[in-house]
Amino acid sequence: MTSMTAFTKIRPQGCASIETRRKAIELFEKGYGYKTVAAKIGVSVYTVRDWGRRFRRGTFAEDISSRLYRYEDDARERVLELDAKGLSVREISEKTGIPKSTCKGWINRAKAVCVDA
Question: Which own/partner pairs from 12-15 qualify as long-range (CB within 8 Å, at least 24 positions apart)?
């Protein structure tokens, strides 16, 4: 039996916290404008303006899209290590819990950098 190291995605740095986004929703629901909301929660007026537009459309959520979450650098390093050992993309995906398409993209980009160098 092979050991599996599962990597999880993390929130990117610089994204507003779930609590900040929740507070913005509360303020939008109370009828505050984006300038007031921005001042109260300490986020850029332009960001809050975009949030307000999405709130009115019904597409603003407390959390960011799961597509924006990223793997830590050690996940990419592990994928490249396993590729160097000769494992297939499918095997790498099974061992790491990272989708095959992500593994393949990382491997292809790393090989492209080696060819360009």
Answer: 12/68, 12/69, 12/70, 15/64, 15/68
* Model pTM above 0.90: no
Q: Residue 98: what residue type? A: I
Q: Tell me: pLDDT of 43 over 50.
A: yes
**Arithmetic mean of pLDDT over the chain:** 90
Q: How far separated are the first and last CA of the chain, in Å rounded?
A: 38
Extract the tokens encoding 82. 């396993």
Could you give the number of structural domains in the chain?
A: 2
Encode burial over 51-77: b for 16+ CB neighbours within 10 A, e otherwise: bbeebeeeebeeeeeeeeeebeeebbe
Q: Which residue has the tokens 């740095």?
A: 13
For 50, the domain range is 14-68
User: Based on the domain organization, do 92 and 107 belong to the same domain?
Assistant: yes
Structure tokens at 114: 């080696």
**Residue range 19-35: mean pLDDT, rounded:** 96
